Amino acid sequence: MSCDVGLYGLAVMGQNFALNMASHGFKVCVGNRSHPKVDLTVNRAEREGNLPLVGSSSVEEFVSNLSKPRKVIILVQAGKP
Q: How distant, in Å, are the alpha carbons of 5, 24, 40 from that of 66?
């Protein structure tokens, strides 16, 4: 699937932002440093209406799923470094 936008960083805000974009018709590719969050977000998208959201298991896969010109949103959780 060629995605419109990619979102990397699936803490609470990242998950909700990705699902919101998908619910408004954008094809979204998601990625995260820890893969279980990707699976959780993809499953949530399926439960909430089979939303157009694709998970990626690596940075290379994440980038290859994006249509050109690539648009990427990176969200980093605040707190201790």
A: 6, 18, 21
**Rounded to an integer, what distance in angstroms lies between the CA atom of residue 47 and that of residue 27?**
16
Whole-number Å distance between alpha carbons of 62 and 76: 17
Distance (Å, whole) CA 56 – CA 66: 11
The pLDDT tens digits for 26-63 are: 999 999 999 999 999 999 999 999 999 999 999 999 99
Cα–Cα distances in angstroms (integers) from residue 20 to residues 52, 56, 58, 80, 81, in the given order = 11, 18, 23, 27, 28
Query: What is the pLDDT at residue 1?
Result: 62
Residue 30 host element (H or E): strand 28-31
